[in-house]
Design a protein that fits this description.
The protein is mostly beta strands and about 130 residues long. The chain has one helix at about 1-20; strands at about 35-40, 45-55, 60-65, 70-75, 80-90, 95-105, 105-115, 120-125, 125-130.
């Protein structure tokens, strides 16, 4: 059930991202590479998991047992984008997570999140859309 909920949350994030895109958001100079790298760094000490989009727009879920964590793959031609969400609990207030998305070796999306007073954290750098 936990995995299904994470996949649903990822898919909803993607739906809202695609819906908010418009033709004036053209990504001039975008790479045609489909080499994807997700990277998570920081000092968060609690339990963490990542939900990410892999080839074919399928959602995947993984427990992160130590930092730094990376996931690399080449997205299939039918894949529309790259997205990752990292969440955790049991940390200490103000501990951090930085989540990055690289496409073809170039940093495309990045965010840093801080743990709240209850020790929870959520970091979502956004969705990278492959150029048509």
């Amino acid at each position: 059930m936990k995995t299904q909920l994470k996949q649903i949350m990822l898919m909803l994030t993607l739906v809202f991202t695609f819906a908010s895109c418009s033709s004036d958001d053209d990504d001039k100079g975008a790479t045609n590479s489909r080499a994807v790298k997700y990277e998570v760094t920081g000092n968060f000490s609690g339990q963490m998991d990542a939900v990410y989009m892999e080839s074919g727009d399928s959602g995947q879920s993984v427990d992160i047992t130590k930092l730094p964590w990376t996931k690399e793959f080449t997205a299939a031609s039918g894949t529309t984008g790259a997205a990752v969400q990292v969440s955790g609990h049991g940390g200490v207030v103000d501990q951090t997570l930085t989540v990055k998305i690289y496409i073809g070796g170039k940093l495309e999306k990045e965010t840093t999140a801080k743990a709240k007073s209850d020790g929870t954290i959520v970091a979502i750098p956004g969705t990278y859309i492959f150029p048509l």
